[in-house]
Structures are given as C-alpha cells and as structure tokens.
C-alpha cells in the first residue's frame, strides 16, 4: 500500500508498528541507504489521519537523504513518526516501545530527536536500542549546530545577494523561534542584525523578543515584513504560489524542512529576484553534529564542517548565476550525484 502513496519515492523500507499495551502507533521510513545507514529524527505529532503521518514520514525521510548527501556525511535518509500528542500522550512505556521498534530494524535506521521529542526522550528510547544519536553529554543540543548552519549560510547569502559582508544592520524576519529559530535569533542579535520574530506560541515569541531586543509580529504577517532576509524556521511549504509574491525580502534562508510547497516554487523565487538557500543545506548543521557524536567528537572539525555548508551555498549561487537554474534544483543535483556515486539510484 505504501508504494502507491504520492509521496513514495522508491523508499527502501516503510514499516509501521501498533502496540496496544504502550499506546504506540508509529511509522519508520528509510528512503535511501546507499551512503550509509539511514539517520533522522523521531517526530511526535497528533496527526489528523494515518495518511497525514505517512505523508510526513515519506517526505521527511526523503529530505534526510538529500541533507546527508549535501552535507557529505556517510549516512542515508530516514525518519520516524509517532502518532501522539507530545503534551499529553508521551509516556516512558510509549518511548521504550519505540526503542524496541528501532532496535528491531538492526541498525538500518538510527533515530534522534525532532519536533515533539526531546533529548530526554531520545535517552529513554536509547535504553531499548543501540541505534540512537544526539545524547553525547559534551556535545550539547544539536539544535545549536542547526542554528549555526543557518547562520553561516545566511551570512554567505547576504554577502552574495545583498553585498553585505556581515549581518550587522541586516533586517531579518524570523518565522518560528523554537529549538532552532530561537537559537538563530540569539546569533543574529549577537551579530548586530535588526530582527523581527513571530511564532505560533506567542508567549515564546515574546520571551525571545524580550531577551534579544527583537520586534514582535504575527505569524501570518512575518513573511511580509520589509526585511532584507526572511528566515522560515517552523512549518514546511511556506514558500508557495501565494506567499512568494508577498515576500519583500530578497534572501530566504531558514531552518524549516520542506520549505518549498512544490518544485516550481524554486523557479518562482528566482523569477521574483529572491535568493533562496535550499533548506536541506541551510539546516544540515544538526545532522553534521550527530555524525561527529557517532564517530569521534571533535568540536573544531564540527565547526569547520558547518562553515563548509556556506562554501557549498557559494558554489550553488555561482552555478545558478551562470545557468539560470533554481538553487534548489542545483542542490538536488549535487546531492543526487553523490548518492549515485555511492551506488544509489536517485
């Protein structure tokens, strides 16, 4: 049945588990493992329907394949989703059952935290499986590395597209100030940027604004701010046929997954004169962090690797300027070349 879903893309494995005793209802998807075992977070969300959960796990696991390839780390793409409300349904029994599910795949998929799950949740899952990542004490929270990756790509985009050598004085509208967005706002404030923030959690937005001196605006209005840079760090599909004409920023760089509603939106942005840093490049810092946690923890090498994401964006930007192609399509091509070089079929 999975093979007939519109978001199915030659995934290597899609498997579900339902456990009445713990209340677990989960799906794990492995998109591609030609470059190494699949890695990706475990999302916990009260999906409206099982199909919505399946669609999410298929799309997100595919995105992880491209993210690990563009970041040039030896992993493939995977994802897990648990159909549950993280505020009310998370129990130790449910997380332990998820650990058993991951362990049953014998290393084909390595899990970590994601929306709705925390480092503590991953530690609990890890009591029942060898195949979890992100809990090395000295590494801190990998979300910081994600934010740093967004920041260095944003800095490169500002230089290339706006002629600004630093982000000091740049006007940045940030949509979403959670684990990644909040950390990004702090980095931007330290860099001297002028910042607007918005979040569906208005209390959180107010707290971040008060801490950093950012201005507040509505979650549905932030993309229309007269800013230099728009940074989506919450929901996917925010760059679409309706929203792109409303953008006033000339650069888009953010940490959200699946920012483009359709592949056509890549060219829509280019036609509007907007420089877009592909999401799976901008937000790859976190997965790079997990790579070093699972190999040899080396903070200096991690920092160098994250800076390399900006170098990759420079390459993409220059290719787009020469060819007229969308930056998203160019990033996809780089990732697919690396996957094919490892024997994959993308």
Automatic annotation (TrEMBL):
PROSITE patterns: GLFV_DEHYDROGENASE. Pfam families: ELFV_dehydrog, ELFV_dehydrog_N. The active site is at residue 79. SUPFAM superfamilies: Aminoacid dehydrogenase-like, N-terminal domain, NAD(P)-binding Rossmann-fold domains. GO terms for biological process: amino acid metabolic process. GO terms for molecular function: nucleotide binding; oxidoreductase activity, acting on the CH-NH2 group of donors, NAD or NADP as acceptor. The keyword Disulfide bond does not apply. InterPro entries: Aminoacid_DH-like_N_sf, Glu/Leu/Phe/Val/Trp_DH, Glu/Leu/Phe/Val/Trp_DH_C, Glu/Leu/Phe/Val/Trp_DH_dimer, Glu/Leu/Phe/Val_DH_AS, Glu/Phe/Leu/Val/Trp_DH_bac/arc, NAD(P)-bd_dom_sf. Belongs to the Glu/Leu/Phe/Val dehydrogenases family. Coiled coil: none annotated. This is Glutamate/phenylalanine/leucine/valine/L-tryptophan dehydrogenase C-terminal domain-containing protein. Keywords: NAD, Nucleotide-binding, Oxidoreductase. NAD(+) binds at residues 176-181. Residues 140-343 form the Glutamate/phenylalanine/leucine/valine/L-tryptophan dehydrogenase C-terminal domain.
């Amino acid at each position: 049945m999975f093979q007939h879903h519109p978001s199915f893309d030659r995934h290597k494995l899609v498997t579900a588990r339902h456990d009445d005793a713990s209340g677990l209802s989960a799906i794990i998807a492995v998109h591609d493992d030609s470059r190494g075992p699949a890695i990706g977070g475990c999302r916990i969300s009260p999906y409206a329907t099982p199909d919505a959960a399946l669609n999410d796990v298929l799309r997100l696991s595919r995105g992880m394949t491209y993210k690990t390839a563009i970041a040039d780390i030896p992993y493939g793409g995977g994802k897990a989703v648990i159909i549950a409300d993280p505020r009310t349904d998370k129990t130790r029994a449910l997380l332990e059952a998820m650990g058993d599910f991951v362990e049953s795949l014998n290393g084909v998929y390595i899990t970590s935290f994601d929306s709705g799950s925390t480092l503590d949740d991953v530690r609990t899952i890890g009591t029942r499986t060898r195949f979890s990542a992100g809990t090395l004490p000295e590494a801190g929270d990998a979300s910081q590395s994600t934010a740093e990756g967004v920041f260095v790509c944003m800095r490169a985009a500002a230089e290339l597209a706006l002629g600004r050598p630093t982000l000091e004085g740049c006007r940045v509208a940030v949509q979403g100030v959670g684990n990644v967005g909040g950390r990004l706002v702090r980095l931007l404030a330290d860099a001297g940027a002028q910042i607007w923030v918005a979040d569906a959690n208005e209390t959180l937005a107010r707290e971040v604004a008060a801490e950093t001196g950012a201005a507040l605006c509505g979650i549905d209005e932030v993309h229309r701010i007269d800013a230099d840079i728009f940074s989506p760090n919450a929901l996917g599909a925010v760059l679409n046929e309706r929203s792109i004409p409303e953008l006033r920023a000339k650069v888009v760089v953010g940490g959200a997954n699946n920012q483009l509603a359709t592949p056509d939106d890549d060219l829509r942005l280019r036609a509007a004169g907007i420089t877009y840093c592909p999401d799976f490049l901008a937000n790859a810092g976190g997965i790079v962090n997990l790579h070093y946690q699972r190999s040899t923890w080396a903070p200096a090498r991690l920092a160098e690797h994250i800076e390399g994401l900006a170098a990759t964006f420079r390459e993409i930007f220059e290719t787009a300027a020469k060819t007229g192609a969308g930056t998203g399509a160019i990033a996809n091509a780089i990732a697919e070349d690396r996957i094919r070089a490892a024997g994959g079929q993308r």
